[in-house]
Design goal:
The chain is of the alpha+beta class and 292 residues long. It folds into three domains: 6-72, Uridine Diphospho-n-acetylenolpyruvylglucosamine Reductase, domain 2, CATH 3.30.43.10; 80-204, 2-Layer Sandwich (Uridine Diphospho-n-acetylenolpyruvylglucosamine Reductase, domain 3), CATH 3.30.465.10; 224-288, UDP-N-acetylenolpyruvoylglucosamine reductase, C-terminal domain (Uridine Diphospho-n-acetylenolpyruvylglucosamine Reductase, domain 1). It is built from six helices and 20 strands.
Length: 292
């Protein structure tokens, strides 16, 4: 199979994840562009396990690593353009923060909240990522999907079952791009809105520490951070993983954490919240790979 991208074998994933942890990928592919990625996937052996990684946020790769092939879109699948006066085409590898600024610069409103999501369009589509009261799928009109055979399909919003931090579609399909439907607004107002949102985020979240973003989903009518803090867990650590003093729904890597440390801390938090409040906290972070 002749491709234009880069194929790495037994590649440590810690340097690709925002938590700075994770064992090796059996195969890691960094595509040249969307067309190259489609060709690569079409040439994979039938049944090859396939995983996707953008900026590596909202992802815990276990210390034993990942068997199969990991597609890394960081700095790739980055095409973005104005499709018409109120629609923007965005490939899966574009960071959400770039989308927010791009739309604001064009005088389009509705995507400002994306500035607070530390991932790519692909990851945001997969989990209906949200921030500051906004959710990704509220502005998605249609998407472009690829299956394990390399077949590409266009699908409308209504073909997916979308809920809070949850998106259900056809099994074994992955997002290549999206068309966003926005509204005409005021460019300067949108830029000021983004600035205010980022100032709020920086004041309340440990944005300068190795984290994955929010670890837990907010339970109905409450906040995960409030429950964790009420359990007295701010600053609680297991190994090199610690509950952030700044925001209790963030787990920081103090520099020497393993995936096992982080996962043990996640489970300890869940146990404490369940014991003290009778609430089962569900993880927002996606855990993949094998334990060491």
């Amino acid at each position: 199979m002749v491709t234009k991208g880069t194929l790495l074998n037994n590649e440590p994933l810690a340097k690709y994840t925002s938590w700075r942890v994770g064992g090796p990928a059996q195969h890691l592919y960094i595509p040249e562009n969307k067309a190259d990625l489609i060709e690569f996937i079409a040439g994979l052996p039938a049944g090859e396990p396939l995983y996707w990684m953008g900026l590596g946020s909202n992802l815990l790769v276990r210390d034993g690593g990942i068997r199969g092939t990991v597609i890394n879109t960081r700095g790739r699948l980055k095409e973005m353009y104005l499709a018409d006066s109120e629609r923007v085409y965005v490939e899966a590898g574009v960071p959400c923060a770039h989308i927010a600024r791009f739309c604001a610069d064009l005088g389009l409103t509705g995507a400002e909240f994306l500035a607070g999501i530390p991932g790519t369009m692909g990851g945001a589509l997969k989990m209906n990522a949200g921030a500051f009261g906004g959710e990704t799928w509220s502005i998605v009109e249609k998407v472009e999907m690829i299956n394990p055979r390399g077949d590409v399909t266009q699908r409308d919003h209504h073909e997916f079952e979308v809920a809070y931090r949850s998106v259900k579609g056809l099994a074994d399909e992955w997002f290549l791009s999206a068309q966003l439907k926005l509204s005409k607004g005021n460019s300067e107002a949108s830029q000021q809105h983004i600035k205010a949102l980022l100032e709020k985020r920086n004041a309340s979240q440990p944005t300068n520490k190795p984290t994955c973003g929010s670890v837990f989903k907010n339970p109905p009518g409450d906040y995960a951070a409030r429950l964790i803090e009420a359990c007295g867990l701010k600053g609680f650590a297991i190994g090199g993983a610690v509950v952030s003093e700044k925001h209790a729904n963030f787990i920081e890597n103090r520099g020497d954490a393993s995936s096992e440390d982080i996962e043990a801390l996640i489970e300890h938090i869940q146990t404490q919240v369940q014991t003290q409040f009778g609430i089962s906290l569900q993880t927002e972070v996606c855990r993949v790979g094998e334990k060491a």
